[in-house]
Amino acid sequence: MNPPVWDDAAWKPLPRVEGTVRAEVCVVGLGGSGLAALEELRARGVNAVGVDARGVGAGAAGRNGGFVLAGLAKFFHETCAAFGQETAAEIYRATAEEVQRQAREMPDIIRLTGSLRLAAEGGELEDCRAHLAALRECGFAGEWYRGPEGEGLLLPTDGVMQPLHRVRALAAKLRTEGIPLYESSPARRLVPGSVVTDAGTVLCDTVIVTVDGKLEKIFPELAPRVRTARLQMLATAPAPEVDFPRPVYWRHGYEYWQQQPDRSIALGGFRDHALEAEWTDRAEPTDFIQGLLERFLREKLHVRAPVTHRWAASVAYTADGLPVLEEIGPKVWAVGAYNGTGNIVGALCARAAAQLAGGQKSAWAELLARARGTR
Q: Which residue of 52, 69, 142, 245 has the fewest C-beta atoms within 10 A of its own C-beta?
């Protein structure tokens, strides 16, 4: 698989499940969500283990654009229209607080630079203004922006990160706290009481599956409302000829990029230019989308540095834009389908699943249930 620019090859692989492993809870998927679930379980004194088919951050958690954003995948004014202003505001507030929490815990990895939402054409400027007006009406930070990158909206409390460093740091922390983590252990069979892998079995009371892309493959009953898509990216060598101090969303968020501290550019987008082809669980980059990305890199961003990496990730979408957080079967929970914005929403959903699985209440789960009740 084409490695993302984030992979510095410094990770030492973890063991696979062999024989019989016993735990109260088995978390399947070691991305940001699965690791957040394990953190929550540890805080509650629950004996838990984590397994992954490939490795820590091998899926979308370590292959995304590294944006750290408040809100759901829909822009805030769209969320208000879909789910009501009060519910939308509570959801936004919860995600904004999670942004701050993660930044406090990982100041060397998450940088609160703010983010830009820039309009690709004049009609989108009106949508940016509606977005800003909705934020201000609910008391959230936002400013009109006009600068060298373009015109649109500045969201000053958002940020950016190196996504693979984040998940690997979380995994390392959990291991030092005694939480067993296993790589190269695909879950071949999930039933109440066990997770069967190629070389061993985890015997457990509860299973929490924290998988974004291909979630409907694991749970076919989700297929009518969950669909996996491919998101493609590229990255360059250091590009001192340009300066992007903040991550940028452009053209309603279809294109997105950040400039890393070493001045290299990571750019993704253009999925809608081959929409049917990109509804796939294949995670290999294609010549067509990569060609569009490189043309945009040269003609719009004016980057001259050579392309060094090309990669893709599988992520899942839902028709209503809300993530999946539910008990699929007795003591088997599914968490995923973050609609392309899982860095913050995924952590909230996974911690909520850990709480619910333990018989506790979850304010985040209640918010999502309220939002679904408006549909």
A: 245
**pTM of this structure:** 0.96
Count structural domains, the chain: 2
Using CA atoms, how far apart are residues 366 and 347, in angstroms rounded to an integer? 16
One-letter amino acid at 219 equals F
Q: What's the pLDDT tens digit per position in 23-78?
A: 999 999 999 999 999 999 999 999 999 999 999 999 999 999 999 999 999 999 99
Q: What is the CATH number of the domain that holds 176?
A: 3.50.50.60
In a domain, 89, yes or no: no
pLDDT, one tens digit per residue, over 176-205 is 999 999 999 999 999 889 999 999 999 999
Q: How many CB atoms lie within 10 A of CB 217?
A: 15
Going 120 to 306 to 213 to 24, the CA torsion angle's sign is: negative
Q: Are strands 159-161 and 181-182 parallel, antiparallel or unpaired?
A: unpaired
DSSP result, 218-272: H-GGGTTTEEEEEEEEEEES--TT----S-EEETTTTEEEEE-TTS-EEEE--GG
Output the CA–CA distances (angstroms, integers) from residue 38 to 35, 97, 109, 110, 170, in the order listed. Answer: 5, 20, 20, 20, 10
User: How many other CB atoms sit within 10 Å of the CB of residue 5?
Assistant: 21
Q: What is the largest CA-CA distance in the chain?
A: 61
Cα separation, 202 vs 271, in Å, equals: 38
- 122, 158, 124, 367: which is closest to 258 by C-alpha? 158
